[in-house]
Amino acid sequence: MAEDTATVRTGQSEEKATEKREQARNSIAEWAVTILLLLFGTTTLVQAFVIPTGSMEDTLLIGDHLLVDKLAYSAPGPISKYVMPYEEPKHGDIIVFRYPGDITQTFVKRVIGLPGDHLKMVHRTVYRNGVPLNEPYTYHKFPYDESRDNFPGAPSPFAEGLQAQLQREMLEHNVVNGEVVVPPNSFFAMGDNRDNSLDSRYWGFVPRDNIIGKPLLIYWSYKASTEDLAGSSIGSLVHHMVDLGEHFFTRTRWSRTLRIIRGFPDSQLADHALPINKGNPDP
Fold first, then answer.
1. Domain presence at residue 13
2. Residues annotated as catalytic (active site), given as ranges
């Protein structure tokens, strides 16, 4: 019995050591890709992007300036597919994409559903293919709201134009037994700030062709308002420039500078899945 226990402990130690080595290799690979993109990247490989709203808090903050890897999800060529790190979006990935309701706008959200997934949300808990997920990255600022924190439900009364049309089509054609079924070549994306995120609950699915890439690195983070960052008026621009001149050092979030952005791998989501019999969380 003692020998068996020692063998188990040795096996566990070796497994943990292997896991640590794998994590170290992954971190080295991430930094290597980051450095290569910074040194040799052009607009075809990397795109700068600033977070103007709080829909991804606290993962990404208003004023985070990102470098977006446009290569990761691009279509592989006949030769390059063997040497370049192409991939498909996975559960837990953070993606940057053209907003289906207005492709001139760029959104950043987290992938919750892949093609074929069955999704619903009950009392803020997301169920994917019947399994309730514990999502440690989510953020709730406001009290529980039945119309917002359960999905699918009635169409949003605030949706207008193409957004309302996309939401209506999803609810009419993609709901089976109270769950949304993600269609082929599409993804279901949600913001980490579930109380304040205009996401797939309100305008439907992200077409595969709309995905630009994934955030790679926060190269600078500055505490600013949504009005300054998203405003298109001359007044907003002038105010932001004056604010930068006066408060660059005090409002720069130095601790977020050069921070690599990682998704939340599906293996970790599985590890953190809630038990089926778990009661509804408090609002």
1. no
2. 55, 109
Question: Residue-wise pLDDT tens for the chain (283 aa)?
Answer: 544 444 444 455 555 555 555 554 445 445 455 555 554 544 567 888 999 999 999 999 999 999 999 988 887 666 555 556 678 999 999 999 999 999 999 999 999 999 999 999 999 999 999 999 989 999 898 999 998 999 999 998 888 899 999 999 999 999 999 999 999 999 999 999 999 999 999 999 999 999 999 999 999 999 988 877 776 667 766 777 887 888 889 999 999 999 999 888 754 444 444 444 333 333 3
Cis peptide before 152 (omega within 30 of 0): yes
Alpha-carbon distance of 65 to 275, in angstroms, equals 37
Q: Dihedral through CA 217, CA 124, CA 171, CA 59, nearest 10?
A: -10
Q: What is the DSSP string of 92-120?
A: T-EEEEE-TT-TTSEEEEEEEE-TT-EEE
Tokens coding 175: 């709901």
Q: Which residues of 117-131 are buried (b: 16+ CB within 10 A; e: fewer)?
A: bbbbbeebbbbbeee
Residue 2 lies in a domain: no
**Domain region containing 181:** 41-271
Question: Does residue 26 fall inside a structural domain?
Answer: no
Q: How far is CA 74 from the centre of its chain?
A: 17
**What's 92's domain CATH number?**
2.10.109.10
Largest CA distance in the chain: 77
The total of structural domains in the chain comes to 1
Residue 99: CB partners within 8 Å, gap ≥ 6?
105, 106, 107, 203, 210
Task: Specify whether the CB–CB gap between 60 and 261 falls below 8 A.
Answer: yes
Tell me whether residue 20 is in a domain: no
In the DSSP assignment, the letter for residue 155 is P
